[in-house]
Every structure is written in C-alpha cells, then in structure tokens.
Amino acid sequence: MSMQDVCVIVPVYNEALTVAKTVSDLLQTFDHVVCVDDGSGDGSVELAQAAGATVLRHVVNQGQGAALRTGFDYVLRHTAASYAVTFDADGQHLVEDARRMVQRARAEAIDVVLASRFTGRTEQMPFARELVLRAAVRFTRMTSRLEVTDTHNGLRVLSRRALQRIDLRMPRMAYASELLDAIVPAGLSYVEEPVTVIYTDYSRAKGQKNSNAFNILFDLAVRRLRAAQ
Amino acid sequence: MIIKILLITAALGVAVLVLREKVPRQQEALRRATGLLVVLAGIAAVLWPDLTTKVANAVGVGRGTDLVLYLLVTVFAYAALTTTQRIHRLQHDVTVLTRELALSRPTPPGGGEESIRPEAGSAAGSAATREHS
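^ Those are the sequences you sent over. The predicted structure of the assembly is below.
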C-alpha cells in the first residue's frame, strides 16, 4: 500500500544521538518526514535535515504540545496528506508499528489510531514508570470517556479530518490528555493498536520524569477551572 | 520630617509611573485613577499620621497600621495576580509567534529555504536567516 499521502511528524528537542537514525528508518517506509525542532541547541536540526527530513524550527522552546501543533498546521497548510503520524525521535517506536497503524486507519476508515504499549509488547519498562502510566490511564478513562489502555504514547495516526477538528492549546506534556479528551466531542472514530515500545538507557534518561505527572495534573486542573468559568 | 519628604517623594514617583505606563486597555483610565487615589491617600497619611487611625476606627479596625497592612496585602495580591495573568498572555503570544515563524519558513531535506511564499521578498528573508545561522 502506498504511503505517499502520509506525513510523519517527529517532535525533536535535543535528540542528536537518535534523530538521524529515526528519520532514515522512517524514510524507508514513508515519503514525507517532518521534524519539528523545539529549540534544540545540539545540532539536531542539521542531523535531521541531512537524514532527509523537512525541518520546522521553533526558535524558542515551546513544549512538545506546541511542536506537534506546528506539525499539524504544516500538514494542513502545506501538504495534501490524508494522514499524519506522530512519532517520537528517541527511537522508542518501531516504523513497522506506524505502517500497520496507517494501514488500519485506511482499511477501517478510522480517524484516530492510538498506540498501546500495554496491550502490545514493552521492553524493559521501569516499574515506577508503569505505575504512573497506568494511573494516567485510569484518570483519562474517567475524564474523557475513552476506552483506552495507554494514554501517553507518542505514536499516533490522525486523519486529516482529525487534524482539522482537534485544537491543542495545553502547554508542555498535558497536550496528550487534551488530545484524547477532544476525540469524543469532535465526533471522531478511534481505535487502539498494540505496539512495541523499546525502553533503552537513552530513552529512560531522556524521557519524561515520573514526577512530571504532577505538573500534567496541575495543567489539566487549571484548564478545567478555566473551562468552568 | 525627613521621612515625610522621602515618603511623599516616593508617592509622587509612583504617581509618575502610574501616569507613564502605556497599556492601551479599556480599564486603563480606572486603573490610573485608582493609582493616583492611592498616592494621594499615602501623602495624606504621611502629613497627618493620626488620619489612618481615625479611618481604621471608622471601619472597625483597631489601629491605623493594621489597616495599612490589610490594604498592602490586598494591593499586593491584586498586583501579583494581574502580573501573572499578563505573563501567561505574553507566553501564549510568544507561542503563537514561534509557531507561525516556524511554519513560514520550512527547511526542505538537505538544507536551504523552501520558497513557499515568493512574495515575501528574498532580501528580508535571507537577512533573517543569516542572523540565525
């Protein structure tokens, strides 16, 4: 199946060690890879460019939510892609999983395909991380009416319709919950696909700290308060 | 006596700041009037120290200093809140600008500027690029 109408969005923030390999792996399957650089200072931009990605640069760090939103806007304004894939730059996802998710979105005409590491296979996940992520899943199930098993997975497939209807406004990492919360109200269809997430020493050191869960909850609580006003 | 001169000078300095600040908002007139009122009240309190106690007693507070402290806490909380809100607004504006800037000049694979908007003018565009590289 052709992947010409798919645009892969890779948010990048100081990922010089892994970004080139991530991009070149993606380009073996997908034609169009867009890296949204979120103010990296380690040469990630040049590496991504040399590896064959289109690069958008945030001159000031704005958080992953803003980076993804820039990527979504790029897809809508500058391409005719039918699907956007979000893919982490740190090498924890498999391109094969992304390909399968796009195929499923197309075959079943689904707007949003979410990746789940809990129905899939997870390699070397730290125990504390598992506890935090499972708590996040319970929280999301309660608040967004979604039947999901993994809420903070960077691998997603979104149809063009989904990009048009989902508006991300949250700062930092809370966008992941915001994105999920928007699916049902926007009338979008969704499905979960089991995937493999590889935890390496690099991704463990580079990734989110468990304590950041508190910040996410705080951001979400503030949003609730504002929405209630 | 010296402290009175110092305090009144400081109060007038605040008044100057209140008048000079350029924030074109609808409530600006109200904010300035309130600011000047506070300055005048401050000067009055310096010139007639007993006045604060009289006002305090009138509203049911024992000492004038307590009343001044309550007012200070209220004004500080208000100032801190409006400043925080303004910072959040600015942060949001910066995010919007950063994203638009990124979208206006995507770099295609291999480097160089993609000419999505040829009408934007090459001179200004290349000057901005040079500044960042």
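Chain A has a mean pLDDT of 85. Strands of chain A lie at 6-12, 32-37, 54-57, 83-86, 112-123, 156-159, 190-198.

Shout if you want it in another format.
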